[in-house]
Write a structure and sequence with these properties.
Blueprint: H1 3-9, H2 22-43, E1 49-50, H3 53-56, H4 63-70, H5 83-102, E2 106-109, E3 120-123, H6 125-143, H7 148-155, H8 157-178, H9 201-207, E4 214-217, E5 221-224, H10 225-231, H11 233-253, H12 258-276, H13 285-288, H14 294-308, H15 310-317, H16 323-353, E6 365-367, E7 373-375, H17 379-382, H18 386-399, E8 407-411, E9 436-439, H19 448-451, H20 453-477, H21 479-487
Length: 497
C-alpha cells in the first residue's frame, strides 16, 4: 500500500473545525438553516403581505393571528409535506438521472486525487436542462399559463421546500454511512475528504466525510452524487421556480413586469452559463476539496433554488415597473458583474488547460515547488479572487429590481379593482379581475429584509469562501503562497479588501 493511498483513507491525526465546530453545524443543520427557509416562505406571501402585518407590530402579535397571516396549514405541521409532492419531486430527480445517462455528453477526467488516480465525469447538464425546459415550453404553448407544472409549483411551494430538505437530509445520511466502507487501495478510486473525517459524527455528517461518493443505479449507470447535485436538480429547479413566479404574476395581473423579466433573465443566464461551462466545476473547491455532506446537499438542493429565487417570488405578487432608466441601470450592474466573473474564470481555466493559448500566453505567474502555478497578472493579478467580485456585483442586480420592497395585501370584493390597473406611483397595484388590493403602505422598506437578504448572505458566503481558499492555499503552497501574496496584495476588491 502506497503512502499516498494510506493518507487518502486514514483519519487525520489532527484536525481543525470550520463553521464554529460541531455545536454550530448541528444547530445550523437542524434549526437555523431550515428555519430561515421556512420563514422566507411564510412571512412573505400573497395572503397578508411581505412581511406579514404582525411583524410590523410585534406587541400585538398573537400565535393565532400569525398563523392566519402566514397561511399555516390547517392540518398543522403535517401539511408541510404530501405524498403527491414527494412523488413529483422524486420523479423530477429520476428524470434528471435518466437524462444524464441517456443524452450524449463530454467525458473528462477530474483533477488528480491524493491516491494519484483520476475520476471520469460525464457532462451534459446543459442539454439535460434544455430537454426539460423544452417539455415545459410545449406544455405552456398548449395550455397557456394554466399549464399544470406552473400551477403545481406555486400551489405547493412549501411542500416542495420540505421534500427537497428531506432529500438533503437523506443524501447526507446515506453518504456518511456509506463512507465507512471506503477501503485503502479500492478499485473504485474512493477516498475521504481531508477535513471530513474528524471523528465527530455531527461535524463529519455536515461537512462531508467522503470526497466523491458515487453510486451505481441499474439502467442509469454510475452517478457521481456530488457532481450531480452541484448543477442538476437544484440549478434547474431555480429557473423553474422563477418561471412559475412569472406565470403567476401574469395570471394575477394580466401582464408581466419588466422587473420580474430582468430578475428571471439574469438568474437564468447565471444558471445556463454554469451548465454550459459544466466542466469548469472540476477545478472548484466543492469538487476538489470538500466532502459531500449536508452542507453541499442542502446548499445545492434547498438553499440555492428556494432562497436565490425570493426576488421573483416577491415580484409575482407585487410587480415593480422600472422603466427604461431603471432597466438600463440594472443591466449595467449585471453586465459589469458578469464580465468580471466570466472573464476571470475563463482566464484561469484557459491557463490551466493550455498555458500556451495565445489569449493568456502573456500572463505572468509563479512556479510553485509543488509543481503548480499561480497567476500574478491579468485578472488574477488584480486580486486573488476577482471572480468573487463579479459574483457579488451580479448579486445586486437580482435584488435591485424589487426596489424599496414591502407590501400589504388588503382583501376586498371582486369589484374593488378593475382590469388593467397599473402602478400609480404610490404602490397600489391591481390586475383583473382580482379580489384583493396590494399596496406598500407601512410595509414599505421592510420587505427588503427578504428581497435583499441574498446580497447580505452572498457577501458573507464569498468572504468565508475566500478565507477557506486562503487557508487551503497556504497549506498547499507554503512559502510560495507568501510570495504570491506579496505580488497580489488584495483578496477581492483592491483598496478595500
Amino acid at each position: 500500500m502506497s503512502k499516498s493511498t494510506r493518507k487518502s483513507v486514514l483519519p487525520a491525526k489532527s484536525h481543525e473545525y470550520e463553521f464554529g465546530g460541531p455545536p454550530v453545524v448541528f444547530a445550523a443543520s437542524f434549526f437555523v438553516l431550515p428555519i430561515i427557509c421556512y420563514l422566507a416562505a411564510f412571512v412573505c406571501n400573497d395572503i397578508s403581505g411581505c412581511p406579514v402585518p404582525s411583524m410590523l407590530h410585534p406587541r400585538s402579535l398573537t400565535l393565532m393571528k400569525l398563523k392566519e397571516e402566514v397561511g399555516w396549514p390547517h392540518d398543522g405541521i403535517r401539511g408541510l409535506a404530501s405524498f403527491k409532492v414527494t412523488g413529483f419531486v422524486l420523479a423530477y430527480y429520476l428524470l434528471s438521472l435518466i437524462l444524464q445517462a441517456a443524452l450524449p455528453g463530454i467525458v473528462q477526467q477530474g483533477v488528480q486525487l491524493r491516491s494519484g488516480a483520476r475520476l471520469e465525469y460525464k457532462f451534459n447538464a446543459f442539454s439535460s436542462a434544455m430537454t426539460i425546459l423544452l417539455g415545459a415550453t410545449i406544455g405552456t404553448y398548449l395550455k397557456g399559463p394554466d399549464f399544470a407544472l406552473w400551477t403545481f409549483i406555486w400551489d405547493n411551494y412549501t411542500q416542495l421546500l420540505t421534500v427537497n430538505l428531506g432529500i438533503a437530509y437523506a443524501l447526507a445520511s446515506f453518504v456518511y454511512y456509506r463512507s465507512f466502507t471506503v477501503k485503502a487501495g479500492n478499485k473504485h478510486k474512493r477516498e475521504l475528504a481531508v477535513g471530513g473525517h474528524t471523528g465527530n459524527m455531527a461535524y463529519d455528517w455536515f461537512i462531508g466525510r467522503e470526497l466523491n461518493p458515487r453510486i451505481t443505479i441499474p439502467v442509469v449507470g454510475t452517478i457521481d452524487i456530488k457532481a450531480f447535485c452541484e448543477l442538476r436538480p437544484g440549478m434547474l429547479g431555480y429557473v423553474l421556480l422563477d418561471l412559475a413566479f412569472v406565470v403567476h404574476q401574469y395570471k394575477l395581473y394580466g401582464f408581466v413586469s419588466d422587473s420580474i423579466i430582468l430578475v428571471t433573465l439574469f438568474q437564468s443566464v447565471y444558471v445556463f452559463d454554469a451548465l454550459w461551462m459544466e466542466p469548469a466545476i472540476l477545478s472548484t473547491m466543492d469538487i476538489t476539496t470538500d466532502g459531500f455532506g449536508f452542507m453541499l446537499a442542502f446548499g445545492d438542493l434547498v438553499w440555492l433554488p428556494f432562497i436565490y429565487s425570493l426576488q421573483a417570488r416577491y415580484l409575482a405578487v407585487y410587480p415593480v415597473h422600472l422603466g427604461l432608466p431603471g432597466i438600463a441601470g440594472v443591466f449595467a450592474v449585471q453586465g459589469l458583474g458578469y464580465w468580471i466573473f466570466r472573464s476571470a474564470n475563463n482566464e484561469k481555466n484557459r491557463f490551466r488547460t493550455n498555458p500556451k493559448d495565445p489569449r493568456i500566453a502573456h500572463l505572468q505567474y509563479i512556479k510553485t515547488q509543488s509543481g503548480g502555478t499561480l497567476l500574478t497578472s491579468g485578472w488574477w493579478g488584480f486580486s486573488r479572487h476577482p471572480n468573487y467580485l463579479g459574483d457579488f456585483i451580479m448579486a445586486w442586480s437580482y435584488s435591485l429590481p424589487t426596489g424599496i420592497a414591502g407590501y400589504m395585501v388588503k382583501h376586498g370584493s371582486p369589484g374593488l379593482m378593475s382590469h388593467g390597473d397599473m402602478v400609480d406611483g404610490k404602490g397600489v397595484i391591481s390586475g383583473g379581475p382580482v379580489k384583493q388590493q396590494v399596496l406598500q403602505g407601512e410595509a414599505r422598506g421592510w420587505g427588503m429584509l427578504i428581497t435583499y437578504f441574498y446580497v447580505l448572505y452572498f457577501a458573507i458566503l464569498l468572504i468565508h469562501r475566500e478565507l477557506r481558499d486562503e487557508e487551503a492555499c497556504k497549506k498547499k503552497y507554503g512559502k510560495d503562497w507568501e510570495k504570491y501574496q506579496e505580488k497580489v496584495r488584495w483578496r477581492i476588491l483592491p483598496g478595500i479588501y
